[in-house]
């Protein structure tokens, strides 16, 4: 080959290679996107998104769309010409002056185009790393105000982080999601998800003109009563409402691939991409359940997903049509038990823990105080209810409803307070204080000529007769009067009281053969009610080290906190010397019976274990973050994790739990309770506990699930002074973490080494000696499931019992100050340490 030929060949090879290997994110006057032979695309600079021509499924139609480039499952997030497909592969997408993107067919007919209200000299179309296709002048940066047009203003069925859904009141432009017609037809389908601008903005999901779901108004933290709008560990929700615009948006907190899609069958689903399984995993969806159906229970009806039937009337209200109500036709709703008569002593009752009623017709003021709101509503006989708009900083703003209250559901831990107008005769309530019962009759008089209120309070005291009666009243008060952080003042949490005879019959008189196990509280029996429902009955033992306080604690916390990863309480019984708690029956028992048993442990492969780990983490995150009060379990361990028929984990045994107020982060006690091997250093040594105490226990539990070994019974033949935490730490430092895995797991094809190593690393972060160095449970969930994210460096764990270690050692504690009692049949030791200081 001649020198000149060689040079020509090299130049040709370079140009060919350069064209194949290099991609651009921009359409210019000289560079278009083409279909068919010589097909071209553009790719965002970070390689996440690609724009080009595609055909959905088996369809032969051609569309211009944007999709994830490096995801194995083709996932289209935007379609340009969804209503005007091409039927050939001759399409071309190009940019023309004054700044318009046009889609042309083979005879140069315009199939689809953008619009613009201004002109630029050198327009380009650029695909940003967010998935947003923008048109701008070539010399401008990526500031939104400089865009001539952007695809984020015209989404199809997919919401991407950074997108805004809502209204521009100045231009009248609305940004919303609309479903595809089918999985192979991206034309506009039946469903729309948007912000309704009537009254105070809310998100509506509609099928045509019919509302299927309403999010409720924004309350400063989330959309009122929307179970799925709470802040996530990997994205943050924001809401803007002012005279110029109203919209919600969110941005990512972690490098997670996530999207929300309005499916062609009417579900709004947020999914995340998992590299390990190469599939999209559902994170949340709306509608979530039956109670999300718009105005299912009619006016003044309340929907409670925990009851059957789900619909009931608010307290002081009765069904408007009793016959229809009995047939489960709740559309007629409820009405006041006592009719209103304006200016004759009417007042307001507080209802807590609810999704605020429809705000399409409310009057609102964003700066008014709650007291000002009440005064204004009381003056107007047509005002049926009032509430704060936002609940941050003690509450601000004023809603006033003048129509019937529609679409109310009970949201115990995330709902709001509303004050509803009732007749004077309904303003009779009972309160209890200082161990005595008080009956209070409140008569409110409102003269026609003014707002002077005269209140007459008649208080009658009487002594309680029996100890059990006191306890029943206490439990009843919590559940019926909303003493739990003022989250519920209705009867929606009324905990059923069981007769001893019913439980005797259900358990065959507590037959020894029905005994499931025994813990510090007492024995647990399986039972079957006459309805056929299987139950677990926890019976307080006469010799139990736990007593009335733990009984009340459990009745309070488990019944109030509703989450799929917390055990569900069904009721209680207090009769004679018997005190019992009744739970749902979980057929697979406790986690310790699987992971610490050589035979049973083989039933738990790695995917099942990882699922259990994530379930426990989600349950703890709910306790620590999503409940209005922070709940600290204080006794998280394998025996307190129960498994349902699908091996879904449920945290149980809240006898030692404590709650924190909104601004509290740490508390101190002179009585340390918990289980040896799981207690955090700061709690054992100084009596300080916080949510990070539970994080430490979770880290221990995570290592136990992976290794199949108890922390307290671990034995290292090479170093008998080391515990499981120390062993995991040494293996981690030496890059041998996989040696911690239970042996039989290593032989299975389902084991993900990267997932296991990551989980061990996260566990070691959780057992750091100092609580401030441990992650939150929301961060734990993100770290466990985001294989692409870097993890902080792990440090030596607390209670690392090695002769060379300088961290806390359980043997250094004054053993003379400790009282230990056996917990459950596992031989675990429950520590109660009374600090002499």
How would you describe what is shown here?
The protein is of the alpha+beta class. The chain folds into 5 domains: 133 residues, Agglutinin, subunit A, CATH 2.90.10; 134 residues, Agglutinin, subunit A (Orthogonal Prism), CATH 2.90.10; 138 residues, no CATH class; 122 residues, Phosphorylase Kinase, domain 1; 243 residues, Transferase(Phosphotransferase), domain 1 (Orthogonal Bundle), CATH 1.10.510. 18% of the residues lie in helices and 30% in strands. The protein contains 14 helices and 51 strands. Strands 29-34-31-32-30 form a 5-stranded antiparallel β-sheet, with helices on one face. Helix 8 packs antiparallel against helix 10. The longest helix is centred in the C-terminal third of the chain and has 21 residues. The radius of gyration is 31 Å and the shape is globular. The N and C termini lie far apart (94 Å). The N terminus and C terminus are likely disordered.
Observed structural traits:
18% helix; 51 strands; five-stranded antiparallel sheet; single chain; Agglutinin, subunit A; alpha+beta; 837 residues; disordered N terminus
CATH fold call of the largest domain? Transferase(Phosphotransferase), domain 1
CATH superfamily of the largest domain: Transferase(Phosphotransferase) domain 1
* Arithmetic mean pLDDT: 81
Strand order in space, largest sheet: 29-34-31-32-30
Derived from helix and strand composition plus strand pairing, the structural class reads alpha+beta
CATH C-level category of the largest domain: Mainly Alpha
Report strand %. Answer: 25-35%
Characterize the main sheet.
Answer: 5 strands, antiparallel
The N- to C-terminal Cα distance equals: 94 Å
Q: How many domains, in number, for the residues?
A: 5
| Broad shape | globular
């Amino acid at each position: 080959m001649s020198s000149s030929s060689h040079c020509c060949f090299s130049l040709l090879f370079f140009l060919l290679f350069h064209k194949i290997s290099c991609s651009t994110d921009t359409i210019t006057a000289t560079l278009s996107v083409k279909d068919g032979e010589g097909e071209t695309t553009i790719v965002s600079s970070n390689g996440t998104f690609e724009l080009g021509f595609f055909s959905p499924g088996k369809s032969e139609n051609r569309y211009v769309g944007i999709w994830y480039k490096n995801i194995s499952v083709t996932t289209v997030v935007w379609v340009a010409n969804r209503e005007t497909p091409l039927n050939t592969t001759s399409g071309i997408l190009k940019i023309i002056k004054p700044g318009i993107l046009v889609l042309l067919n083979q005879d140069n007919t315009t199939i689809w185009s953008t619009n613009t209200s201004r002109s630029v000299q050198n327009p380009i179309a650029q695909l940003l790393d967010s998935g947003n296709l923008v048109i701008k002048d070539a010399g401008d940066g990526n500031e939104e105000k400089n865009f001539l047009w952007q695809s984020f203003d015209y989404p199809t069925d997919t919401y991407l982080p950074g997108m805004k859904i809502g209204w521009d009141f100045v231009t009248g432009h609305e940004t919303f999601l609309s479903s595809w017609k089918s999985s192979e037809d991206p034309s506009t389908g039946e469903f729309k998800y948007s912000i309704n601008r009537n009254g105070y903005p809310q998100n509506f999901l509609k099928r045509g003109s019919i509302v299927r779901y309403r999010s409720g108004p924004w309350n400063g933290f989330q959309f009122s009563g929307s179970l799925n709008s709470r802040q996530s560990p990997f994205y943050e929700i924001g809401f803007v409402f002012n005279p110029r615009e109203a919209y919600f948006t969110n941005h990512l907190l972690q490098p997670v691939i996530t999207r929300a899609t309005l499916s062609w069958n009417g579900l709004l689903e947020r999914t995340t991409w998992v590299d390990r399984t190469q599939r999209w995993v559902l994170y949340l969806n709306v509608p979530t359940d039956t109670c999300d159906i718009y105005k299912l229970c009619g006016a003044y009806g309340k929907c409670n997903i925990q009851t059957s039937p789900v619909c009931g009337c608010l307290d002081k209200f009765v069904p408007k049509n009793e016959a229809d109500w009995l047939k489960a036709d709740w559309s007629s709703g409820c009405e006041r038990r006592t009719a209103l008569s304006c200016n004759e002593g009417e007042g307001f009752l507080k209802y807590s823990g609810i999704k605020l009623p429809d705000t399409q017709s409310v009057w609102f003021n964003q700066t008014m105080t709650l007291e000002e709101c009440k005064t204004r509503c009381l003056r107007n006989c047509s005002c049926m209810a009032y509430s704060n708009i936002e609940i941050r900083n003690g509450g601000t703003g004023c809603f006033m409803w003048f129509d019937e209250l529609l679409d109310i559901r009970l949201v115990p831990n995330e709902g709001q307070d509303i004050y509803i107008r009732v007749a004077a005769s309904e303003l009779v309530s009972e309160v209890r204080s200082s161990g005595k019962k008080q009956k209070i009759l409140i008569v409110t008089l409102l003269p026609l000529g003014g707002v002077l209120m005269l209140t007459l309070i008649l208080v009658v005291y009487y002594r309680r007769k029996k100890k059990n009666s006191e306890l029943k009243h206490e439990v009843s008060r919590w559940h019926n009067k909303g003493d739990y952080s003022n989250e519920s003042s209705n009867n929606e949490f009324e905990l059923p009281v069981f007769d001893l005879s019913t439980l005797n019959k259900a358990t065959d008189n507590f037959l020894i053969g029905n005994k499931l196990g025994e813990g510090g509280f007492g024995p647990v029996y399986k039972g079957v009610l006459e309805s056929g429902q299987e139950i677990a009955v926890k019976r307080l033992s006469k010799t139990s080290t736990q007593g009335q306080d733990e009984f009340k604690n459990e009745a309070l916390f488990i019944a109030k906190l509703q989450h799929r990863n917390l055990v569900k309480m069904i009721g209680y019984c207090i009769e004679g010397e018997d005190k019992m708690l009744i739970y749902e029956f979980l057929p697979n028992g406790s986690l310790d019976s699987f992971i610490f048993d050589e035979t049973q442990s083989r039933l738990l492969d790695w995917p099942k274990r990882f699922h259990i780990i994530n379930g426990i983490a989600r349950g703890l995150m709910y306790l620590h973050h999503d409940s209005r009060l922070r709940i600290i379990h204080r006794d998280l361990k394998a025996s307190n994790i129960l498994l349902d028929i699908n091996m879904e984990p449920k945290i149980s045994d809240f006898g030692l739990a404590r709650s924190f107020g909104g601004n509290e982060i740490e508390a101190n006690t002179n009585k340390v309770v918990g289980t040896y091997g799981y207690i955090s250093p700061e709690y054992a040594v100084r009596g300080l506990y916080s949510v990070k105490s539970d994080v430490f226990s979770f880290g221990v539990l995570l290592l136990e699930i992976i290794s199949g070994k108890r922390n307290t019974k671990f034995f290292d033949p090479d170093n008998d002074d080391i515990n499981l935490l120390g062993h995991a730490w040494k293996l981690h430092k030496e890059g041998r973490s996989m040696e911690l895995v239970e042996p039989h797991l290593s032989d299975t094809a389902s084991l993900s080494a990267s997932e296991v190593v990551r989980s061990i690393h996260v566990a070691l972060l959780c057992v750091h000696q100092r609580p401030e160095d441990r992650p939150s449970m929301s961060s734990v969930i993100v770290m466990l499931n985001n294989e692409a994210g870097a993890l902080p460096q792990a440090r030596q764990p607390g209670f690392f019992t090695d002769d060379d270690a300088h961290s806390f050692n359980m043997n250094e504690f004054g053993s003379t100050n400790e009282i230990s009692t056996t917990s459950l049949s596992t031989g675990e030791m429950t520590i109660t340490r009374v600090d002499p200081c």
